[in-house]
Amino acid sequence: MLNKRLAVMIGGTAACALGIGFVMQKTIPAPQPVPVIQAQSISDPVIQTNPVSDEPLEIDGITLTSAQPDEDLIVARSTAPDQLPETPKDPKTPRLGCDVDLSAIAVDQGHVRIGVIAPCQQNERLTVHHSGLMFSAATDENGIYSVLVPAMSEQAVFIVDFANGTDMVASVSVPDLAGYDRIAVQWSGNSGFEIHAREFGAGYGDDGHVWSGTDTSATGQVVRLGENQSLNPLMAEVYTFPRATNTQAGSIAMTVETEVTAHNCGKDVSAQSIELRDGQSLRTRDMVLSVPNCSAIGDFLVLNNLVDDLKIAAK
Fold it and tell me: What confidence tens digit (pLDDT) does each residue in 225-236 have?
């Protein structure tokens, strides 16, 4: 992976949105002819036999004969207004025991543990929203989902929504976030973006090289959010550097990289960065990348201008 890289410079902005709509139309069957029913006088009931079965057809003193003996006899009775069948309920109406719950708990290093309990939403796709960051996942067979999210704001608000329109909101204070710098990159589909941080002059493969596929003794860390097994997943990676506790001065080289694969070759793919630096306001940047054709499968594109390097001052 590390020996085949192509440096590219990307500019411009783009916004993309995908939507899938479905229209369902039910066909109303044409009305069927109703057999003609003849009724004899109640005062002088006459028992007649069915030409098919030779059995008498008598209901409450009224003898009925079908005008179409080769078809089933249809007897319609009126229903009083107070006996009308109950109207079916909207399937989105909450059922007993189907309440949903979202919790958000601040933990160490400026992270938040969010938990979803939705007993009637088993194995259902959901989307997590937080300060512009978005990623998709799914509940388990019990309707439960839990994830550790790097907070992007001290007063952190999390929204979780399901495809059926169910929304949940939770908020929590993250007071220690001020001591951390964070850089996030997010995308949709199988674009395969990765954040790479090379801390204080580290080269690729050194201990100071940090990305989601390594577990090194580097100061910072990268986490990946989202599950890419679903259709058109929303994915994100977040790099965290502990500025408040760091004692080393220098710079951290930041790059965003993607491998040319059969999923993205010859296509335009988009990504967005979200940066939280030295307690300042969040900064976002959009990018559209034209991936080379499929003859370049296996190569890596190194994007040097989507995020800026981190400058770390000495304590």
Answer: 999 887 889 999
Is 240:262 a contact under the CB 8 Å cutoff? no
d(CA 163, CA 144): 16
- What confidence tier does 55 reach under pLDDT thresholds 50, 70, 90? low
> Tokens in use for 135?
């990623």
Q: What residues have CB less than 8 Å from 279, skipping those under 6 apart?
A: 178
> From CA 44, how far away is CA 29, in angstroms rounded?
40
Q: 309: closest CA among 272, 270, 271, 277? A: 277
Q: How far apart are CA 112 and CA 106, in angstroms?
A: 4
Percent of the chain scoring above 90 in pLDDT: 51
User: Which band of pLDDT confidence, cut at 50, 70 and 90, is reported for residue 96?
Assistant: low
Instruction: Report domain extents, the chain.
Output: 97-312
